[in-house]
Specification:
Number of helices: 10
Oligomer: single chain
Bound molecules: zinc ion
Shape: elongated
Radius of gyration: 19 Å
Largest sheet: 3 strands, mixed
Number of domains: 2
Distance between the termini: 69 Å
Strand content: 5-15%
Length: 181
């Protein structure tokens, strides 16, 4: 009886592992990897995160993430979260789009995008990911003073106001932004 039960459990576990692996491989197979030049830009952005003390995020991005540069079938059927990048939790996949390379003006801006995506890989939702980046933008070196006029800064601020409105609930602060003094 016990042997039968163990056999059943083993079969069930093996089937589950194989299904997850097949699903993951199908995501990889239906998308393209970044070019060498794109990969270098991704690595420089991870380097910025490391330098600025986002050690856990940098470690996850460097060691456990597979980067893709085109949508796999799953991204193609779900709603796009933004034009820069998308993360698939718990598969530890990040897809970077043309805006990540072209619209973002430098490695610090690309680091801000990867910081957001890395939070999803820790299981966080949009509210938490937008909130985390906005509250840590000083530490990242991506501020109103350094990047306030770039298209990406303006876009991401707008998205943050939509996704994390509680950070803009301080009428006594400049632009009602609770993170500003
Ligand atoms: Zn997101």
């Amino acid at each position: 009886m016990l042997t039968l039960l163990l056999q059943y459990l083993w079969n069930y576990t093996a089937l589950t592992v194989l299904s997850v692996a097949a699903f993951y491989l199908s995501l990889i197979a239906t998308s393209l990897p970044p070019t060498a030049e794109e990969r270098a830009a991704i690595d420089r952005a991870i380097g910025v995160l490391e330098q600025r003390g986002f050690v856990n995020e940098a470690r996850v991005l460097r060691s456990s993430v597979t980067f893709r540069a085109t949508d796999h079938w799953l991204n193609a059927i779900i709603e796009k979260e933004n034009a820069y990048a998308a993360a698939n939790f718990p598969f530890q996949l990040i897809t970077t789009y043309p805006d990540f390379f072209n619209k973002a003006v430098d490695d610090t801006e690309r680091a801000a995008v990867l910081l957001h995506e890395s939070r999803h890989l820790f299981g966080e939702d949009e509210n938490a990911a937008y909130s985390y980046v906005w509250q840590n933008r000083e530490r990242l070196g991506w501020t109103l003073r350094s990047h306030g006029t770039t298209a990406s800064y303006i876009t991401i601020e707008q998205q943050t106001r939509e996704m994390a409105p509680e950070l803009f609930n301080c009428p006594e602060r400049p632009w009602s932004d609770c993170t500003l003094r």
